[in-house]
Design brief:
Zinc Finger, Delta Prime, domain 3, 5-stranded parallel β-sheet, 5 strands
Length: 329
């Protein structure tokens, strides 16, 4: 069987049809930005792009040739992953200068060499300007893939040299097909609930299915909705936990609620968090920044107390009363 007669999806990318077509075409652009929240498929797409660049088959990436297999294993010498060092909070400019110099060296075994830059939003302006020098006049064999959650953190001059793809949430049909393939043992209604809670992104949906956190995530969303509506009744219903709720499950509820309020604070401050929940947007519209910060502090206090020997049901009722008190001030 020829290498072009059967293609192996070593990096399955769900939805995102425009990006999928681009990868299948061989990804001819020399610089690409993949923007989206965690779990949206950015890293899978980046690895697929890299495999397409080094693939030895006419149909790229074939998933069958030696180059694709090395790319899948993370062992191809012409694919380099650039990430934030463990002792740093950002990718240092020295590392970008090293990449820039190395990019002009011919590939070792493929026609192209690929640099995947993770957390590109951490690049300071001078580091981005250092990268820009090679993006403006790249050697023909060099490809760059920038992964970021915050597109607006990249300089306009950098973005102008790149083809930008924004990772798209999946439709209900696409999501069900993806989750059915990845988690066939999960009930269809559980997959649908996880996808809805994950706002259409497969990565977070898989974590929800794996952790079985759907009930707690749903309760946090209901509680946030009640807060946005300033409805003590809705909040009380959301905070009514089953008798078998563990402290760990209650902690998940509090963590999710904290994330929602944090997203509302970001929106209130003029920033746009990745894939904010509808409840966060409604809270930001109807509440002052001071109130949001007080609500966040109340939930964080409850989270620190959740580790002590206290029944989650009792703690949830007390939290609901505290939140209602803040909302009534």
């Amino acid at each position: 069987m020829s290498s072009t007669s059967k293609r192996s999806d070593i990096f399955p990318l769900y939805g995102n049809r425009r990006l999928a077509r681009y990868i299948r075409s061989g990804g001819d652009g020399q610089a690409v930005v993949l923007c989206g929240p965690e779990g949206s498929g950015r890293h899978t797409a980046a690895r697929s792009l890299a495999a397409a660049a080094v693939c030895m088959s006419p149909e790229k990436p074939c998933g069958n040739c030696a180059a694709c297999r090395k790319a899948a294993a993370g062992e191809h010498q012409d694919i380099r992953l650039i990430s934030v060092p463990e002792d740093k909070t950002a990718i240092p400019v020295e590392l970008i200068r090293e990449v820039r110099a190395e990019a002009y060296i011919r590939p070792g075994e493929a026609e192209n060499k690929v640099y995947i830059i993770e957390s590109a939003e951490t690049l300071k302006e001078y580091a981005q300007n250092a990268l820009l020098k090679v993006l403006e006049e790249p050697p023909a064999h060099a490809r760059f893939v920038l992964i970021t959650e915050q597109e607006d953190a990249l300089l306009p001059t950098v973005l102008s040299r790149c083809r930008v793809f924004r990772m798209e949430p999946l439709s209900a049909e696409e999501g069900e097909a993806a989750l059915a393939a990845l988690r066939p043992a999960a009930a269809p209604e559980a997959r649908a609930a996880a996808l809805a809670a994950a706002e259409g992104y497969v990565g977070p949906a898989l974590r929800l299915l794996a952790d079985d956190r759907r009930r707690e995530v749903a309760a946090a969303l209901d509680l946030a909705r009640g807060m946005a509506n300033r409805s003590e009744h809705e909040m009380a219903l959301a905070a009514f936990l089953p008798d078998k709720t563990s402290r760990e499950q209650y902690g998940t509820l509090l963590d999710t609620l904290t994330e929602i309020i944090a997203a509302a604070v970001e929106i209130k401050c003029g920033r746009r968090p990745a894939a904010p929940a509808e409840e966060a947007e409604r809270m930001a519209e109807s509440m002052s920044l001071g109130l949001l910060l007080r609500l966040r502090d109340t939930v964080e206090k409850a989270r620190s107390e959740a580790n002590f020997n206290i029944r989650p049901q009792t703690a949830a009722v007390a939290l609901c009363a505290a939140l209602a008190g803040e909302l009534s001030m």
